[in-house]
Amino acid sequence: MIAALRWCVRRPLFEGLGVDLHSIQARFTLAIATLAVVLFSVMSAIIDLGVRAHVEGDAFEMGEQVASQWSAVARTGRMPHLIPAAAPVDLVQLVGSNGEVMDASRQASRLPALSTHRPPPDDRFQRLSEYVGDRRVLLMAIRISPAPDAPVIYAGLRAPTVVASHGLEYAGVGTTLLLSLLAAWMTWSVTGRALRPVEAIRRQLSTITAGDLSLRLPTPAGRDEIALLARTANQTLTMLEEAMSKQRQFTSTTSHELRTPLAGLRVQLEEALTYPGDVDPQETIRTALATTDRLETIVNDLLLMARLHSGQPAVLEPIDLGALVTEEASPQTPGVPVRIRVLPGVWVHGSRIQLIRVLDNLLVNARRHARTLVEVVVEPVSGQAVVSVSDDGAGIAAADRERVFERFTRLADAQRRDPGGSGLGLAISRDIAHAHHGSLRVEDSSQGACFVLRLPLIPCS
Fold first, then answer.
1. Overall domain count for the chain
2. pLDDT per position in the chain (461 positions), as tens?
3. Based on the domain organization, do 22 and 116 belong to the same domain?
4. Residues 160 and 175 in one domain
């Protein structure tokens, strides 16, 4: 049967039907079909054995009743020569020790001894299965006494057709194949219906390219695994589309920011070559160096942002944030004073170089916009290390509090106070805060702007 199943699932047969043997549907169907064949074969064998045992058991019991009855008569010596017998136990013989049929029923009178087997004296009752001609006979043999020459009474019947032929086995094989095919068909249909949304998702997904992420996958109804997968994939596509849009915008803005100083530098150099007598070479060189410094700053900032977004691991260490702020804020150049208030026990786990970059950006930004004072406060708040840098300047409008963290974004006041800035400092500072599992925001202040850096607090070292 297994060999027949293997023949049915040969690759050429399935390929002719257009079935991919590597598909989940085909593999699952083959697995269920194989399991069904094994299971139904075992069930068929059990049923076959059970039916045979039941039929043969009933036949032997009926034979035992008839044989016991005539064994008692034979012991009295009044055994009739023609033994009366009725169906179904119509074969009865009394056979002597020499194998000669002494008395028999009408149906067994013309037959030789039904069996040559004689039960031993210590086991007088035995069940026998013999062939008389080409027909199987189920017999009960009883030795009428333990004497050595005691005759044996045989009583039995021809085996019923259900156990005499292989019809039961043929029926079992046919039923097994039919049920296995039914199980395979049902499995193929159910898995095909279940996997139909997956095929639709695959086809739609194959049409989505990096140039167009606006397409979405079809979402099946319900909350099964396939529906959840489609929803998650659509959410991922939405995030990818937003990231690609931001990337295109960033590329465009970066190109513009780099093109402007490069164009100015080119004009200056071309003027120096075209009008050597009218252009001061020293001034041209100084201007070119200043432009080169700005370009270098932008490129370095872009490289730092690329490293932060690539997830490259930084060297992390326990840092006393209060000591670091005091160290960076104290040696300030003449100008707006910085007042520092540090509470003890503010430790974080991070990169010293990157945190210094954040603090420098915030301090430079605050001193640029402050009128008379910059205040820095370091304190632990609700399991977080909080650094607030505030100034008493004009402040930042609520509508611009998130915009100032965008790349190359510079408000009008910042452009006026520092025309050479790159507009990447605050964006880099927020990326560093996120890389340290923290945040950087502009929060409410009584006057001026207040930048607040929050980082996870660790126990004091």
1. 4
2. 444 444 444 444 444 545 566 778 888 888 999 999 999 999 999 999 999 999 999 999 999 999 999 999 999 988 999 999 888 999 999 999 999 999 999 999 999 999 999 999 999 999 999 998 888 999 999 999 999 899 999 999 998 888 888 888 889 899 999 999 999 999 999 888 888 887 787 788 777 776 677 777 788 777 777 788 888 888 888 888 777 777 776 666 666 566 767 777 788 788 888 887 777 788 888 878 877 877 777 677 677 666 666 666 567 889 999 899 888 887 656 778 889 999 988 999 988 888 988 898 899 888 888 888 999 999 999 889 999 999 988 888 888 888 888 876 656 555 454 555 556 778 888 888 988 899 999 988 888 899 999 999 987 65
3. no
4. no
**How many C-beta neighbours within 10 Å does residue 85 have?**
20
Tell whether 304 and 335 lie within a shared domain: no
Residues 34 and 103 placed together within one structural domain of the fold: no
Residues in a beta bridge with 390: 375, 450
**Pair of tokens at residue 288:** 């070119």
Distance CA 461, CA 318 (A): 8
Q: Which residues pair with 396 in a beta bridge?
A: none
Q: Domain span at residue 300?
A: 225-308
Judgement on whether residues 243 and 176 belong to the same structural domain of the protein? no
What is the rounded distance in angstroms from the CA atom of residue 121 to the CA atom of residue 26? 64
432's tokens = 């560093």
> Do 11 and 89 belong to one domain?
no
**Structure tokens given for 122:** 């210590």
| Nearest-5° Cα angle at 432, 391 to 437 | 105
Residues composing the chain = 461
- What is the spatial distance between Cα 35 and Cα 186, in angstroms, rounded to a whole number? 14
Alpha helices in 137-280 (DSSP H): 161-164, 167-206, 225-274
**Residues 433 and 392 occupy one common structural domain:** yes
Pair 42, 179 in one domain: yes
CA angle 310, 311, 316 (to 5 degrees): 140
